């Protein structure tokens, strides 16, 4: 079947088998390999993308669900429009060493950005609870939590300017 | 995954017709259970009938003594609904505990109730509140709906359109979750109405069930202490890698007390 959607700001039309997962479509058909497949059982969160602004697990989403929707993947993140900067959440992960091997990072970032959007008063408890669906096997989460709080502050400060 | 045909009907009768005319077709709502099931080859439908184009199945309405939640309403919407938080805070709390944030953005109340997973959260809320399952053809009382392991009173081609919840005086939910899957090892929903208390348990056995001795005790005294000495029989409860039946039986009392506490807070 043919589906049309907005992918990282660009109109996109693809032919897919209905039995295609969005994670597969992104990685194998569209060559966007930043979205990772970890557990493939919707538990680890490495595959999180934003569907119409909401974080969802792309390993448990069928491609037909994209038709008419807006999809944002890790490749679509950016800092100030037109700049060559990273997204403030990405900057925060770099600054605070919020990753080690980096496998879970794309999903962590997508979840963290959704968590922080419009939430200037985000607390550590909110972050720990909000990351419930994202598993990291390296960091013990401490620096991820620190990064998300810093990234959230930067995102909301940028919004307030 | 094995290939399947994909249908996105715009009307409920069209969806029902597809389901009855295509053998081995399956409804898909949020897909949070069905897609993993197909990936594991535990199900191999030849066609999926997707309900996402049926906008009429989404949303929450206030009918005074009841609130009605459309079948395709995601858990995150129920959890964040001011209406549900005000009228049945225990139900909003239950929705906020399902899976994780990404799962709650896709998973729907209708899908959860129709699937009747023995460890799902919503069946406890639906049975505990004595809700009514509204389908494309009739209204079904919760007490007559859940028939056991993944089994419900739904006929082939019958589609849940909404769940209608009576507004209780108080209600609360507490669950002990399996840490990886976040399903309920045991979850207990307690609801107090003018004419009595209902207690529904999920996760402990092959399907959601009520606990009449706790209902009687809580109807007399709606306090955790009223049920502290009530132990349920572990006969017929689930034993698996996560917990033995006797531990689950123990957890029923603990979670029921916490659910009453939650209802009172």
Automatic annotation (TrEMBL), chain A:
Keywords: 2Fe-2S, Iron, Iron-sulfur, Metal-binding, Oxidoreductase. InterPro entries: 2Fe-2S-bd, 2Fe-2S-bd_dom_sf, 2Fe-2S_ferredoxin-like_sf, 2Fe-2S_ferredoxin-type, Beta-grasp_dom_sf, Diverse_Oxidoreductases. It holds the Pfam family Fer2. The keyword Metal-binding applies. One of its GO terms (molecular function) is metal ion binding. CDD domains: fer2 (cd00207). Residues 1-77 form the 2Fe-2S ferredoxin-type domain. It comes from the Bacteria. Transmembrane segments: none annotated. The keyword Iron-sulfur applies. This is (2Fe-2S)-binding protein.
UniProtKB/TrEMBL annotation, chain B:
Pfam families: FAD_binding_5. This is Xanthine dehydrogenase family protein subunit M. Gene3D superfamilies: 3.30.465.10, CO dehydrogenase flavoprotein, C-terminal domain, Uridine Diphospho-n-acetylenolpyruvylglucosamine Reductase, domain 2. Keywords: FAD, Flavoprotein, Oxidoreductase. Residues 1-170 form the FAD-binding PCMH-type domain. One of its GO terms (molecular function) is oxidoreductase activity. It comes from Bradyrhizobium cytisi. InterPro entries: CO_DH_flav_C, CO_DH_flav_C_dom_sf, Diverse_Substr_Oxidored, FAD-bd_PCMH, FAD-bd_PCMH-like_sf, FAD-bd_PCMH_sub1, FAD-bd_PCMH_sub2, Mopterin_DH_FAD-bd.
């Amino acid at each position: 079947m043919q589906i049309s959607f907005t992918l990282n700001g660009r109109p996109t039309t693809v032919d897919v088998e209905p039995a295609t997962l969005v994670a597969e479509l992104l990685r194998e058909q569209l060559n966007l390999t930043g979205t990772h497949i970890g557990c493939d059982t919707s538990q680890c969160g490495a595959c999180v993308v934003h569907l119409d602004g909401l974080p969802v697990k792309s390993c448990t989403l069928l491609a037909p669900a994209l038709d008419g929707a807006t999809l944002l993947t890790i490749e679509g993140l950016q800092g100030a429009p037109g700049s060559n900067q990273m997204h403030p959440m990405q900057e925060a992960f770099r600054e605070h060493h919020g990753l080690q091997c980096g496998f879970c990072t794309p999903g962590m970032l997508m979840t963290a950005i959704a968590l922080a959007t419009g939430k200037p008063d985000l607390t550590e408890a909110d972050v720990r609870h909000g990351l419930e669906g994202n598993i990291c096997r390296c960091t013990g989460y401490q620096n991820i939590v620190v990064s998300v709080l810093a990234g959230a502050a930067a995102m909301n400060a940028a919004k307030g300017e | 995954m094995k290939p399947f045909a994909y249908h996105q009907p715009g009307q409920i009768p069209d969806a029902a017709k597809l389901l009855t005319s295509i053998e081995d077709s399956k409804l898909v709502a949020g897909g949070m259970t069905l897609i993993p099931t197909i990936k594991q080859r535990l199900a191999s439908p030849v066609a999926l009938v997707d309900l996402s184009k049926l906008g009429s199945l989404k949303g929450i309405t206030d009918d005074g003594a009841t609130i009605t939640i459309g079948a395709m309403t995601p858990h995150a919407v129920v959890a964040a609904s001011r209406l549900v938080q005000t009228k049945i805070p225990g139900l909003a709390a239950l929705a906020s505990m399902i899976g994780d944030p990404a799962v709650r953005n896709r998973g729907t109340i209708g899908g959860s109730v129709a699937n009747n997973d023995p460890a799902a959260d919503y069946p406890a809320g639906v049975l505990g509140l004595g809700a009514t399952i509204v389908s494309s053809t009739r209204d079904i009382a919760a007490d007559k709906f859940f028939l056991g392991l993944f089994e419900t009173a739904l006929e082939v081609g019958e589609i849940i359109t909404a769940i209608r919840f009576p507004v209780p005086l108080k209600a609360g939910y507490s669950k002990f979750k399996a840490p990886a899957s976040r399903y309920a090892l045991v979850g207990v929903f307690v609801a107090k109405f003018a004419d009595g208390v209902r207690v529904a348990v999920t996760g402990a056995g092959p399907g959601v069930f009520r606990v009449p001795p706790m209902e009687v005790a809580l109807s007399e005294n709606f306090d955790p202490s009223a049920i502290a000495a009530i132990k349920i029989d572990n006969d017929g409860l689930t034993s698996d890698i996560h917990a033995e039946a006797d531990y689950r039986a123990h957890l029923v009392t603990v979670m029921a007390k916490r659910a009453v506490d939650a209802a009172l807070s």
